[in-house]
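[stage:ingest] chain + small molecule (citrulline)
[stage:ingest] validated
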Amino acid sequence: MTATWFSGTSSSLVKKHLSQALFKSLEHLETASGFTLEKAIRSGIQNPDSSIGIYAGDADSYQVFSPVFDPVISEYHNFPKGGTHVSDFALPDLPPADPGGKYILSTRIRVARNLKDYSFPANLTLSCRKALEKKIIRALGLLESDLAGEYRPLEDVGKGHRPEDKGLAFEKGDRFQDAAGINSDFPKGRGVFHSLDRKLMVWVNEEDHLRIMSLERSSHLSLVFHRLCRALQALSPRLGFAFDHRLGYLTSCPTNLGTAMRAGVHIRLEKLDRKKELLHGLAKEYHLQIRGTRGEKTEVEDAVFDISNAQRLGIGEAAVIQTLHQGLLAIIKAEETL
Ligand code: CIR
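[stage:predict] done
[stage:export] tokens:
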């Protein structure tokens, strides 16, 4: 299978940066938790239409297989050789980007986190995934005041047709994650935590150990961000997140490295919907990514766009939010001018 892939036509970054000779020089290596290069690139091999094609099975993968990860990361993130990543959560209060609530429907900021002492989801056994889930549930149970909430195992969500379960569950991963091993034993060992007001949500054992999300129906970016920071401050010392001075927070997919953060809004832009080149120009200027209403690879419905940061590695969290804020102000101004 690997040999056919090397002579095939996949346009993934891993295919571009992994020669057969490099594969041969690394194929005998194993990370601390027994992850191999063959496992790391399985998704790219089984899905030749992958854009990246490689996943990490633990924090050590980024060291042991750095001759292939590094060029993939450099190209995807436009990250220079020898670059470093410094976190910076010191964001001042910002006024809401759309105080009248005319355009922005909601704001959502999520970060991915993995625990440094556990295999990442592509390399987890069922017993390890369950032990990890227990440890995370304990830490989530210690969240206080407005962050306190309830954990629901994914196996139970939807059972009993509780109306409050609506919108809670996450789906089984796609074929790329499936081939990487991320879906193994799904839905066991997975679940969702939510604060009582549902402004904090945590997915446990999806593509990363934790996907921590702060969200609300407003355009108040700094308020949403500061809630997320409070959750991170409480969870981080209890869980010990994998962080590298060069690559930032370590994630299953190299596209999420660095801040591991996606901060975005749902915004209705009826006029810019008919002037897409103007919208895409502004997005480029402010390093933003435009997606369809329901996320990656979906259509724009009712002129509602999902606009979020495109930069993640080599930039601090506060700078990402400030750039998003400035970009949204510019986009709203353009919509109003049209
Ligand atoms: C791929 O290589 O296409 C998949 N493993 C998904 C990569 C993550 N998403 C992305 O590039 N935006």
